[in-house]
């Protein structure tokens, strides 16, 4: 008797062909729009109902079904502010770079890089519904020339950047991402091999809450990061109580592997939540 296998849930939106169809999203009764001011940069974000999209009420996440992408987490805003600071201090140049935002949800950090001149911005989330119902409308709302949040025609985007959207689990989504290292022997990021392949900047906010997912996340980063001068910017809480993950636990995975180096960019202790950290990781 053959063992029944689970079907893979891998989706890609917004390629070079059939753009208008790829960028359609679920019809919702309404999307509420709010302005977010981040140190002088104003971004527009949508808000949709978890009940309407996933038929869930009052739930931040349901493992394996919904991973919290419809909520705007604090780390996402922290990450945008960090990118702003790094640019102002001359530590980061986004012009012409390839950017990948993992666990994107609202996608505000990725959107910010598009406004700062990145050439390629790819968004990944576990749920295709999050991409259709929230990420894509947010991208349109912030980058369309005529401020049409619900438009799906990418020809009107106020940028020449390439935007694409990918849904899937971290253990599998590399199969549909275009800029990955395909040589299995070189997943340890050996210098001199495939250095022009990969993303120059990888962004992730509040993605390290699950201990069981950390190895898959780290392996995905190694497959996707440009090995010449790639950098990962992460915003996360030190500890996620009740689930066991956190920035310190993830950095211990990085340190144990010994391939990448990490440094703390800044720390946020505002008294309103657990201490949040913003490390950067590089080869």
UniProtKB/TrEMBL annotation:
This is protein-histidine N-methyltransferase. Its EC number is 2.1.1.85. Its main location: cytoplasm. It is found in: Cytoplasm; Nucleus. One of its GO terms (biological process) is methylation. InterPro entries: Methyltransf_16, SAM-dependent_MTases_sf. Pfam families: Methyltransf_16. One of its GO terms (cellular component) is nucleus. Belongs to the methyltransferase superfamily. METTL18 family. Keywords: Cytoplasm, Methyltransferase, Nucleus, S-adenosyl-L-methionine, Transferase. One of its GO terms (molecular function) is protein-L-histidine N-tele-methyltransferase activity. It comes from Camellia sinensis (Tea plant). Gene3D superfamilies: Vaccinia Virus protein VP39 (3.40.50.150). PANTHER family: HEPATOCELLULAR CARCINOMA-ASSOCIATED ANTIGEN, HISTIDINE PROTEIN METHYLTRANSFERASE 1 HOMOLOG.
């Amino acid at each position: 008797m053959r063992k029944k296998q689970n079907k893979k849930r891998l989706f890609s939106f917004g390629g070079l062909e059939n753009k208008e169809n790829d960028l359609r999203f679920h019809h919702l009764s309404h999307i509420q729009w709010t302005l977010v001011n981040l140190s002088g940069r104003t971004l527009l974000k949508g808000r949709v109902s978890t009940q309407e999209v996933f038929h869930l009420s009052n739930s931040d996440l349901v493992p394996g079904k919904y991973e919290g992408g419809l909520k705007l987490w604090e780390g996402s805003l922290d990450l945008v502010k960090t990118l702003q600071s790094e640019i102002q201090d001359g530590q980061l140049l986004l012009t012409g770079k390839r950017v990948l935002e993992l666990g994107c949800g609202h996608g505000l950090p990725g959107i910010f890089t598009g406004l700062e001149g990145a050439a390629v911005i790819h968004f990944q989330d576990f749920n295709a519904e999050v991409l259709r119902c929230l990420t894509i409308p947010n991208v349109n709302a912030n980058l369309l020339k005529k401020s049409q949040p619900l438009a799906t025609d990418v020809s009107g985007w106020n940028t020449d950047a390439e935007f694409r959207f990918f849904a899937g689990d971290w253990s599998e989504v590399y199969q549909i991402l275009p800029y990955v290292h395909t040589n299995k022997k070189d997943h340890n990021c050996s210098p001199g091999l495939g250095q022009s392949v990969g993303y120059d900047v990888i962004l992730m906010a509040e993605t390290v809450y699950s201990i069981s997912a950390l190895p898959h996340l780290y392996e995905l980063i190694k497959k996707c990061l440009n090995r010449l001068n790639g950098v990962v910017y992460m915003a996360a809480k030190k500890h996620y109580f009740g689930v066991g993950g956190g920035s310190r636990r993830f950095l211990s995975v990085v340190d144990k592997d010994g391939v990448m180096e990490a440094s703390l960019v800044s720390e946020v202790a505002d008294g309103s939540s657990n201490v949040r950290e913003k490390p950067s990781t590089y080869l």
